[in-house]
Amino acid sequence: MEVFKCRICGDPYVGGSKPSHCPFCGAPSNYIILAHDWQEPEAFELTEVSKADLEHALMLENNNALFYTCAYEVSMNVELSAMFKALAKVEAEHASVIRKLLGLPKPIEEEDNRGRCQALDQGNIKEAHDREKRAIDFYSRAAEVAIEPRIKEVFTALVEIEKTHIELNNKYLGTFSGMQNPII
After folding, report:
1. Which pTM was predicted?
2. Which CATH superfamily is domain 43-176 in?
3. Is the N or C terminus of the chain more exposed, i.e. has fewer CB atoms within 10 Å?
């Protein structure tokens, strides 16, 4: 058994081999290292551009985590429900990483932390696809303009992670294309 750490979220993983993706934030294996090679990221000052991009990213990730929580709760399909629940956890982990970069405390949990989603899976799959596409576009731009190496690395990893979410959503998108349902 080995102990690994993710360079993006910093969370440890214990296993016989390095996972293909971080089980917490979804970062690909190239961001996962043996724990004994881990070094805490050095403190740095954020530029105003990076601070604004991180604040926008925090809002985006919080909203996506809430959306996926709602989609998980309303789904009648076991596989889709599991996917939505897993994506809610990953998006919440992204928000946690961004809060740390901004030096913000963990928020107090609200009683009703469910976001808005649609009543049926087909609408939520389409919405999930659109949300992930917007995230990829935003993170790609933010990675290009970031001058801090740590911020550039996090935004680059988020692009890679969100692309895996698109692949997952695409698995179901064709099944439901063209269908509409009401927002709840």
Report:
1. 0.88
2. Ferritin, core subunit, four-helix bundle (1.20.1260.10)
3. N
Please state which CATH number belongs to domain 1-40.
Answer: 2.20.28.10
In the beta sheet, which residues pair with residue 34? 4
Name residues whose C-beta falls within 8 Å of residue 3's C-beta, 6 or more positions apart in sequence.
Answer: 12, 13, 14, 34, 35, 36
**89, 98 contact by CB (below 8 A):** no
Compute the distance between CA of residue 55 and CA of residue 44 in angstroms, rounded to an integer: 17
* CA 164 – CA 22 distance, rounded (Å): 12
- If one counts every other C-beta atom within 10 angstroms of the C-beta of residue 140, the result is 14
Q: If DSSP codes are grouped into helix, strand and coil, which group holds residue 105?
A: coil
Question: What amino acid occupies position 6?
Answer: C
Other CB atoms within 10 Å distance of the CB of residue 176:
16
**Token couple for 12:** 């440890």
* Nearest-angstrom CA–CA distance, 88 and 82: 10
Q: How far apart are CA 96 and CA 106, in angstroms?
A: 7
Question: DSSP letter at 29?
Answer: G
The model's pLDDT over 5-61, given as tens digits with 9 standing for 90+, comes to: 999 999 999 999 999 999 999 999 999 999 999 998 888 999 999 999 999 999 999
